[in-house]
Design brief:
Largest sheet of chain B: 14 strands, mixed
Oligomer: heterodimer
CATH superfamily of the largest domain in chain A: Winged helix-like DNA-binding domain superfamily/Winged helix DNA-binding domain
Number of domains of chain A: 2
Order of helices and strands of chain A: HHHHHHHHHH
Number of helices of chain A: 10
Number of domains of chain B: 3
Largest sheet of chain A: none
Helix content of chain B: 25-40%
Strand content of chain B: 25-35%
CATH architecture of the largest domain in chain A: Orthogonal Bundle
Radius of gyration of chain B: 27 Å
Radius of gyration of chain A: 18 Å
CATH class of the largest domain in chain B: Mainly Beta
Number of strands of chain A: 0
């Protein structure tokens, strides 16, 4: 998988990978990349498989990729496209994504989370409550540093939609923090 | 803070953090924000809050979840030269793992106490409205497809619960995230289904005999009356269990192809000598319609398969089978006449 999309591959003169660098790359890329794979194939098990496949091919290649982020996301996208072609299962058009993935009642405050005063942790526990696509966009933007345009291309949506999701995501956080000001301080 | 202002804040922060941005550009955007805030103290506070939200989300707290996933890669790498993976090849291993896990679990289960304190648990309920199928990801990464008119409840602390318990009304297909230390239990009318990590379908409509059909892994189903469970019936792939309400017994059966049980996910309907009353209920859930009939069709049964077709197609077939006349008016179907063959 991924032979036809080696943009960013620094094949001959790249430094050799060691196991530590490989694990480190995995640790950094895993959170968003996994979400991205799930988003594309709508199946956790197969998303994991695709993710592993991409990393295994990197390991076997044995070189450090110059633009690893762009490369990995493209590779996942290609692998997911191949997978969808391969799998005969056409999943019944699932309900609107917002309804389908918003699994936690937003009216409920995660009291437990707020007890733990680590703001960064609390914020990410709130971010994890966002609908799937919004959460993914948030991660891609904040954690992986993709631009609106890059996210739009990876998700096949418009730049305006990306911006809209981010704005709504931040609004949601702000509103939550306001509601729980006393605990949050 | 309104959307337009948030857009501006995000633009300002992105430009500010970009090394290539000019000072003038940054200053210009900053001024715009100041203009918005004016002398309003509340607005200034909101801006500060927004910027701190930005700063506090710059990094992801490491919850270590990558490690488990990385371990699976390491395993694959340590084995013989890695072949190109095919999705299909992977399944037997997963099934084997699930079966082994399930066996281990059944050995250990009796020692596991019910450690949950039910009083403090907040439950969340998700519902698939008639005419809709909903795909839900639970906090523990288990995936559930809810059939039209079904609902599922799960505790907010599901991910950290000693025993992952969920409650089902109606029909759902489960792909349970494997976690041998934390069994997954589905409570539904009359029966309880216990697994580790596997996929299976539960059909438990109120008033009808519930059924559990296994696609992968191993599942234990027991009768549940007021929280007291009978001995479990163990199921393997392509087996199902039907609970007979009249005799209060669990009956295990082999099925040719368990996938048929989850055909509903792709909009199909399969009826096999199904009482008409049940057929009409299934139709009304799937198409979000009401069916009004001037007779009961009580002793009628239908055997038919429908692909994901329009309601007209379905009604045409039924009308030919039972010699009925029908009219569809918006979300209601009126049925006249008809007799069983």
């Amino acid at each position: 998988m991924g032979e036809n999309n080696i943009a960013g591959f620094n094949d001959s003169k790249g430094k050799k990978f060691d196991e530590k660098a490989f694990a480190d790359l995995y640790r950094r890329m895993y959170p968003t990349l996994k979400k991205y794979a799930i988003y594309l194939v709508k199946d956790i098990e197969n998303a994991q498989l695709i993710l592993n496949d991409v990393f295994i091919s990197i390991w076997k290649n044995g070189t450090i990729i110059s633009n690893e982020k762009a490369y990995l996301f493209r590779a996942i996208k290609n692998a997911a496209t191949n997978y969808q072609k391969m799998s005969k299962v056409n999943i019944w058009p699932i309900d609107s994504e917002e309804e389908a993935t918003e699994i936690i009642d937003l009216k409920e405050t995660p009291a437990q989370a707020f007890q733990n005063k680590d703001r960064n942790r609390v914020l990410y526990s709130l971010i994890d409550q966002m609908p799937e696509r919004r959460r993914l966009i948030f991660y891609m933007y904040r954690i992986d540093g993709f631009s609106y345009k890059e996210i739009a291309a990876l998700l096949d949506i418009s730049v305006r939609t990306v911006e809209d999701h981010l704005v709504k995501g931040f609004q949601f956080l702000q509103q939550k923090v306001l509601q729980n000001r006393s605990e949050f301080r | 803070m309104d959307q337009e202002t948030w857009k501006l804040v995000l633009e300002y922060l992105a430009v500010k953090e970009n090394a290539r941005s000019s000072k003038a550009e940054i200053a210009m955007l900053k001024q715009k924000l100041y203009d918005w805030a004016g002398n309003d103290r509340a607005r200034m506070e909101q801006l500060e809050e927004a910027i701190s939200l930005w700063e506090n989300t710059a990094e992801l707290p490491d919850d270590g979840s990558w490690k488990e996933s990385f371990a699976t890669i390491k395993q694959q790498l340590d084995k013989t030269p890695v072949k190109k993976l095919k999705i299909a090849k992977w399944w037997p291993a997963a099934i084997a793992a699930a079966v082994i896990g399930a066996l281990l679990f059944f050995v250990n289960y009796d020692k596991t106490p019910w450690a949950n304190n039910q009083n403090t648990i907040i439950w969340t309920t998700k519902t698939a409205q008639p005419g809709k199928i909903v795909d839900i990801m639970l906090p523990d990464s288990s995936e559930i497809w809810l059939n039209s008119g079904s609902s599922i409840s799960f505790p907010q602390n599901l991910k950290h619960a000693d025993i992952r318990t969920v409650k089902l009304n109606g029909e759902a297909f489960f792909k349970v995230k494997r976690d041998p230390a934390h069994p997954f239990i589905v409570k539904s009318e009359n029966i309880q289904t216990m697994v580790l990590g596997t996929s299976f379908n539960i059909n438990a409509w109120k008033g009808y005999s519930p059924q559990v059909t296994v696609l992968t892994g191993k599942v234990a189903v027991s009768r549940d009356s007021a929280g007291v469970q009978s001995a479990a019936v163990h199921l393997l792939p392509n087996q199902k269990v039907v609970y007979d309400i009249k005799t209060a017994r669990l009956m295990r059966e082999n099925v040719d192809d368990a996938k048929i049980a989850i055909d509903w996910r792709t909009g199909k309907m399969n009826f096999d000598q199904t009482p008409m009353e049940e057929v009409f209920q299934t139709i009304s859930r799937k198409y979000a319609i009401k069916i009004i009939s001037d007779q009961s069709f009580k002793s009628c049964q239908l055997t038919a398969k429908f692909d994901n077709v329009a309601i007209n197609e379905v009604m045409k077939t039924i009308s030919l089978t039972f010699d009925i006349q029908y009219t569809i008016n918006k979300q209601t179907i009126y049925i006249k006449g008809g007799k069983c063959n």
